[in-house]
Amino acid sequence: DAGVTQSPTHLIKTRGQQVTLRCSPKSGHDTVSWYQQALGQGPQFIFQYYEEEERQRGNFPDRFSGHQFPNYSSELNVNALLLGDSALYLCASRHGTLHTGELFFGEGSRLTVL
Amino acid sequence: GNSVTQMEGPVTLSEEAFLTINCTYTATGYPSLFWYVQYPGEGLQLLLKATKADDKGSNKGFEATYRKETTSFHLEKGSVQVSDSAVYFCALAPNAGGTSYGKLTFGQGTILTVHP
């Protein structure tokens, strides 16, 4: 049973560029959350998708956007990259209708902005 | 807003020593509390959780008790092993279950190193 998978694992971009990160949730999960983890810090919630809609959003600017597809996979898009966007981006999934469904995390995509 | 504060790290212990990692939180209502662990080269994994006051979560010899009066959820283990070396994160969800479980607030993490 594959867990949460993310791609790419590492990538380097320059300021002003745009990036798309991808996530496949754990089998049987239908809800995907995205987190940003700066070096030496805890993860920060970006947003959560369920039934192809953004359901909750953290304190991130509109440059951060996402999408969920009918197969429950998800993308995170970041436009107009800033140096401060350099971080590990984590995707997590859970079963949305299970009241206490555990959140499972992928290993992340490490983005470096030069 | 919600926040989680963990003790300053890193923590270095000898094998079989007693471990405590402090965690305090600020939240309205009745949050659920979690400890996640990140082993080298791996993703975050749920270690234990507690969903209401006085609940004790436990797993792999680790324990933590949800103390509403002190807004704390300290992680403890009686005898650590080298294999426990990892980064530990305290986290909270705004409510007990439902969609809030996808929106966690994390502490800054505590690096634990255990020497033989």
Essential attributes:
heterodimer, A: 114 residues, mainly beta, four-stranded antiparallel β-sheet, globular, B: 116 residues, 12 strands
What does this structure look like?
The complex is a heterodimer of chains A (114) and B (116). Chain A is mostly beta strands and 114 residues long. Chain A is built from no helices and eleven strands. In chain A, the strands form two sheets. In chain A, strands 2, 4, 5, 6, 9, 10 and 11 form a seven-stranded mixed beta sheet that branches. Chain A has a four-stranded antiparallel beta sheet with strand order 1-3-8-7, with no helix packed on it. In chain B, 0% of the residues lie in helices and 47% in strands. Chain B is mainly β. In chain B, strands 2, 5, 6, 10, 11 and 12 form a six-stranded mixed beta sheet that branches. A four-stranded antiparallel beta sheet of chain B has the order 3-9-8-7, with no helix packed on it. Chain B has a two-stranded antiparallel ribbon with strand order 1-4. Chain B has no helices and twelve strands. In chain B, strand 5 (32-38) and strand 6 (45-50) form a beta hairpin. Chains A and B meet through strand 4, strand 5, strand 9 and strand 10 of A and strand 11 of B.
Question: Quaternary status of these chains?
Answer: heterodimer
| Largest interface pair | A-B, 30 and 25 residues
Uncertain segments of chain A are none
Strand content of chain A: over 45%
Provide the gyration radius of chain A in Å: 13 Å
Q: What's the end-to-end separation of chain A, in Å?
A: 37 Å
Structural class label of chain A: mainly beta
How many separate helices of chain A? Answer: 0
Mean pLDDT of chain A: 93
| Strands of chain B, count | 12
Number of helices of chain B: 0
Shape type of chain A = globular
> What is the mean pLDDT of chain B?
92
H-E string of chain B? EEEEEEEEEEEE
Largest sheet of chain A: 7 strands, mixed
From the spread of the alpha carbons, the general shape of chain B counts as globular
